[in-house]
Amino acid sequence: MSRIQCPRCQRPQSHCLCPLIPCLDSRTRVLLLQHPSEVNHALNTARLAALGLNNAELIVGEVFEDLPRLLNQPGYRARLLFPADDAQPIQTYGASDEPLLLVVPDGTWRKARKILHLNPLLAALPRVTLADGGVSRYRLRKAPGPGALSTVEAIVQALQVLEAPVSFEPLLRPFEALIEGQIAAMGEETFRRNHAGK
User: Which ranges carry the DTW domain (predicted)?
Assistant: First the structure.
C-alpha cells in the first residue's frame, strides 16, 4: 500500500514540506528544465525551487519543442546557468539592466549535458556561472567536484548575487528539512559511516 502524497510538494503527507516552502518574488525569471529521471527522486530540489519562487516555471522532458517561445520572454535576457570556458560570472543587476531569464537544466551532470545536446537552441545560449568555492549542504551525496551544488542551492546562490541585497535563503529551508529527514530515516550511525566527512 502506498503512502498518501501531498499533491503540491509530492512528499508523503506525513513528511509534507509545504509549511516550509516560501513564496518569494524575484526580478529574475527562472526556467527549470528537468530531466524525466529526476521527477520521482526523493530529493527533487528543482520542484522545491519552482514551488518557492513566484517567477519560476518547471518543465519536464528531454527535448523541449516549445523552447523558442519559452526563451523569448519579453523583458528578459535568456542565459543558461551551466559551466563553460566562455561562461560569464553572475553579477548583480545594475539600475538599468534588463533582468535575466535564468535557464537551469536539472539532472545529473550527464543528464544535463544530454538535455543541452538534444536542444541546440539551449546549448547556443550565452552561459553564466557561479563564483567558485560554493559549498553544498547536500550531505547525502558526494559532490563530483568543488562548487557542485544541488539545483536549489545553485538557484539561491545565483539569485543572491543577481538581486543583492535581497535574500533567497528561505528557499533552502525545505531542502535542509528534507536532508535532516533522510538522515533521521537512515539513522545517525549509518549516516556517519556512509556520508559524514565526505
Answer: 2-187
* Nine cell digits for residue 144: 563530483
Q: Do the beta carbons of residue 121 and residue 74 sit within 8 Å?
A: no
Rg of the chain (C-alpha set): 17
Bridge-partner residues for 101, per DSSP?
A: 29, 78
* Residues 125/132, Cβ–Cβ less than 8 Å: no
Could you state, in order of their start, the residue ranges of all structural domains in the chain?
Answer: 24-194
Specify the DSSP element, H or E, that contains 66.
none
Fold of 24-194: Alpha/beta knot (3.40.1280)
Q: Report the predicted TM-score, pTM, of the whole model to 2 decimal places.
A: 0.86
Q: Taking the CA of residue 92 as centre, how many other CA atoms within 13 Å lie in the half-sphere pointing to its CB?
A: 9
Rounded Cα gap, residues 176 and 140, in angstroms: 11
pLDDT digits (tens, 9 = 90+) for 26-41: 999 999 999 999 988 7
